[in-house]
Amino acid sequence: MFRMRLYYGVHGRHSIWSRSKASLKTIILDVFELLALKGTIRILKQLSREPRIAYSDLVRTVGHSTTTTRALNAMVKLDLLQKEVLNEKYRPVVYFLTDKGKKLAEIVTTLESL
């Protein structure tokens, strides 16, 4: 069920995070489903250690470009990350955590320490 909500949310058809439509229980379940997506936790942990990371470095962290791209797109759409295209040679892309993303990274770190 979540995967369809995430798919539609990421692709702009509707938002899974609309508080007027989603209960707190649904949002919590959705966050756990997002964290279950391959690469998401590794990306959050890497970005919590380094404030800004280039896409190519994140691909090395996760291991596969397709997996990394899917996780990054979902996290950008859900306002956990921000994407910035630098005005340099080859126009590199860097990502950094938003306030929401920082809070989620802290929660993940806490859960891992239990």
**Please, how many helices?**
6
Number of strands: 3
CATH top level class name: Mainly Alpha
CATH architecture: Orthogonal Bundle
Rough outline: globular
In what order do the strands lie side by side in the largest sheet?
1-3-2
Largest sheet: 3 strands, antiparallel
Q: Give the DSSP E fraction (strand runs of 2 or more residues).
A: 5-15%
According to CATH, the fold-level topology is Arc Repressor Mutant, subunit A
The whole-angstrom Rg is 14 Å
The total domain count is 1
Overall helicity: 55-70%
List the uncertain runs: 9-16
- Going by CATH, the homologous superfamily would be Winged helix-like DNA-binding domain superfamily/Winged helix DNA-binding domain
Keywords:
114 residues; Arc Repressor Mutant, subunit A
Verbal overview:
- This protein has 114 residues and is mainly α.
- The protein has a single domain, classed as Arc Repressor Mutant, subunit A (Orthogonal Bundle), CATH 1.10.10.
- Helices cover 60% and strands 11% of the residues.
- It is built from six helices and three strands.
- The protein has a three-stranded antiparallel beta sheet with strand order 1-3-2.
- Helix 3 crosses helix 6 and helix 4 packs across helix 5.
- About 7% of the residues have low confidence.
